[in-house]
Specification:
CATH architecture of the largest domain: Alpha-Beta Barrel
Keywords: Glycosidase, Hydrolase
Oligomer: single chain
Protein name: Beta-mannosidase
GO molecular function, one term: mannan endo-1,4-beta-mannosidase activity
Structural class: alpha/beta
Family: Belongs to the glycosyl hydrolase 26 family.
Distance between the termini: 179 Å
Number of strands: 16
Organism: Neiella marina
Largest sheet: 8 strands, parallel
Helix content: 25-40%
Shape: globular
Length: 459
């Protein structure tokens, strides 16, 4: 049989390729016939035992810092208030016992570190009321008020309270003995005037003593520790816890049909007669009744703000319009804005300031508080005090009190240092401080007052 060349070539090529593949397969099978020796299984690696978690060391116990009991404000110290309700207006300043206090962590001491904050309003920023609330005031009374306006924010009048219940103690002379100068203002008290009065015959010459001080060129202020008009239990008292007498009220108004009201009227008539004696001598009176009412320790403050406001407004109307007393400069001393009777009843706003002994700051926080009492700015006075404010501090802190009035001494001998002696001795005002204040160019003493008399237009 004869083959085509192409077919022969393909057949030969196929055989050659087949032989090659077969040879490769045999080689592969021969190389895989000897299997490798099996290996021993490897032992697992032992893992170390996990260590127990380490407890963090306990945090050290840091003792609570001891909280300060007093706040330093300017050059003075004030205690923290015992309760938040000591500060009903929320300004950070309250009243405890007989002194100002600071509410902890308040605006006055926000971080509670014992360092307080002042925010007095400059006198220059105040729009002062220049007219007396009584349009019929005597010309001499107007002259005194104009003078008070002229010095306000520039100087301060020196003042001293008389010892009402012991006539033999001459507070005016004690000031002269210690400073060589006389106080411009003397303070008197109708404590032992009225239907019922105490302390025997002492304290019944206050009107005559005031006339004497005016005639030697001084100014006079009167307070009224109003004894229980009902007579109490045989010994008339003015402290709330020693008398049951209260302002008689019918709703928000005085109960004028009550026996208590009639008893008050009888006392008012007696006091009006004394004030008329002073008016007859053309003597203006810085008149400060119903003082420290918000403290609650006097019966006229025991029934709350509205009762005191009603009594103040009635007293103003009675003395001004019924008894026609036109020689009074009305000094309000309620100590708290809630007790303010209204601008139309007040000529001067004041505060009684009793701070830690021998703290001679300007009492700028008290000053700033009084500024907020009235709607129209009034002159501001320190109507009672233990420590005399340093005039340099007043100027620096811009707390320009119109006058100060150091409270009186106790019954001890002159010169004795004792907490009951507010002037004599050195418990509150050292000998050096007395000389500093009374000799200061910013402090007006008796010899520096102008003459307010005679009054040519006085009838």
């Amino acid at each position: 049989m004869i083959y085509n060349n192409a077919e022969w070539f393909m057949s030969a090529k196929s055989q050659l390729l087949y032989s090659l593949i077969l040879s490769m397969s045999i080689s592969a099978c021969g190389s895989s016939s000897s299997s490798p020796e099996p290996k021993e299984p490897e032992s697992p690696i032992e893992q170390p035992e996990p260590e127990p978690p380490v407890e963090p060391p306990p945090e050290p116990t840091i003792p609570e810092p001891e909280l300060p009991s007093y706040v330093v404000v300017g050059d003075s110290e004030y205690p923290y208030c015992g309760a938040d309700d000591s500060d009903p207006d929320g300004d950070g300043w309250g009243w405890t016992g007989s002194e100002s206090c600071v509410v902890r962590n308040s605006a006055a001491d926000p971080d509670g570190d014992g360092s307080g904050i002042l925010s007095p309003v400059p006198v220059a920023d105040m729009l002062l009321t220049s007219e007396l609330v009584n349009p019929l005031a005597t010309s001499t009374t107007k002259a005194v008020f104009e003078y008070l306006h002229s010095i306000f924010g520039k100087q301060i009048l020196s003042g001293q309270q008389d010892l009402t219940w012991k006539d033999s103690t001459d507070m005016y002379q004690r000031v002269i003995n210690d400073t060589g100068k006389a106080p411009a203002i003397m303070g008197y008290d109708f404590m032992n005037y009225g239907v019922f009065s105490g302390d025997g015959g002492s304290g019944k010459s206050q009107t005559e003593e005031a006339i004497t001080h005016w005639q030697r060129g001084g100014l006079v202020t009167f307070a009224w520790h109003w004894r229980d008009p009902s007579g109490g239990n045989g010994w008339p008292e003015f402290y709330t816890d020693r008398t049951e007498f209260r302002i008689p009220m019918d709703g928000d108004s005085l109960d004028m049909d009550s026996e208590a009201f009639e008893q008050m009227e009888a006392d008012i008539e007696i006091i009006a007669a004394e004030l008329q004696k002073l008016q007859a001598h053309d003597i203006p009176v810085l008149w400060r009744p119903l003082h420290e009412a918000s403290g609650g320790w006097f019966w006229w403050g025991a029934s709350g703000p509205q009762a005191q406001i009603a009594l103040w407004q009635y007293l103003y109307d009675k003395l001004t319009n019924y008894y026609q007393l036109n020689n009074l400069i009305w000094v309000w001393n309620g100590q708290h804005a809630d007790w303010y009777p209204g601008d139309e009843y007040v000529d001067i706003a004041s505060m009684d300031v009793y701070a830690t002994a021998q703290q001679y700051g300007a009492e700028a926080h008290s000053y700033a508080s009084v500024q907020q009492f009235s709607h129209h700015s009034k002159l501001i006075a320190m109507s009672e005090n233990n420590n005399m404010p340093d005039p340099d501090a007043m100027a620096e802190e811009n707390a320009w009190w119109l006058y100060f009035t150091v409270w009186n001494d106790g019954s001890s001998a002159e010169g004795l240092t004792d907490p009951n002696n507010f002037w004599t001795g050195e418990y509150y005002n050292t000998a050096e401080h007395k000389q500093h204040v009374y000799g200061h160019e910013l402090v007006i003493t008796l010899d520096e007052l102008p003459s307010f008399q005679p009054s040519p237009n006085f009838p």
